[in-house]
Amino acid sequence: MTHPTPVLDPDQIYLSHDRWVCGEAACAGITAQHIGATTSGARLRPVAADDVIGWERAGLGALTCECRRLTASLGQDNAVVIERSA
Ligand SMILES: [Zn+2]
User: Fold this and answer.
1) Number of domains in the chain
2) Cα–Cα distance for residue pair 86/78, rounded to 1 Å
3) Nearest to 7 by CA among 44, 42, 34
4) Cβ distance 34 to 2 under 8 Å?
5) In whole angstroms, what is the distance from residue 45 CA to residue 38 CA?
6) Is 78 within the bounds of a domain?
7) Residue 12 Cα, ligand 1 centroid: separation in angstroms?
8) Which helix (H) or strand (E) holds 30?
9) Which of 13, 66, 76, 80 has the highest CB neighbour number within 10 Å of its CB?
10) How, if at all, do strands 63-64 and 13-16 pair?
11) What is the pTM of this model?
12) What keywords sit in the KW lines (predicted)?
């Protein structure tokens, strides 16, 4: 029995096709957690500063992953800061 190593950081928010997810299997999905892509082949990429800015400009509030465990905001020098919600 093998125990593949997740390729996603559990404390990072990723864009998974059209969803914001964190690196946890319950949020990203077990396939994405281990191969970094969805079952339909879309590669996950970490949230970027432009994403956070665009999200706020669109009036969508705080950018959180789907399980709402993590929130992305902008820190100094427009660096993305990921914080745990709970
Ligand atoms: Zn999550």
Assistant:
1) 1
2) 24
3) 34
4) no
5) 11
6) yes
7) 9
8) helix 30-35
9) 13
10) unpaired
11) 0.90
12) Plasmid
Rg, the chain, Cα only: 13
Ligand 1 center from residue 59 Cα (angstroms): 21
With respect to residue 38, please indicate whether it lies within any of the assigned structural domains.
yes
Is pLDDT at 2 greater than 90 in this prediction?
A: no
CA distances from 39 to 6, 43, 44, 47, 57 (A): 15, 10, 11, 20, 31
Tens of pLDDT, residue by residue over 47-60, are 999 999 999 999 99
Q: How far apart are the CA of 15 and the centre of ligand 1, in A? A: 11
Domain carrying residue 32? 13-84
Report pLDDT digits (tens) over 4-27.
789 999 999 999 999 999 999 999
- How far, in Å, is the centroid of ligand 1 from the Cα of 78? 22
DSSP 8-state assignment for residue 85: -
In a domain, 1, yes or no: no
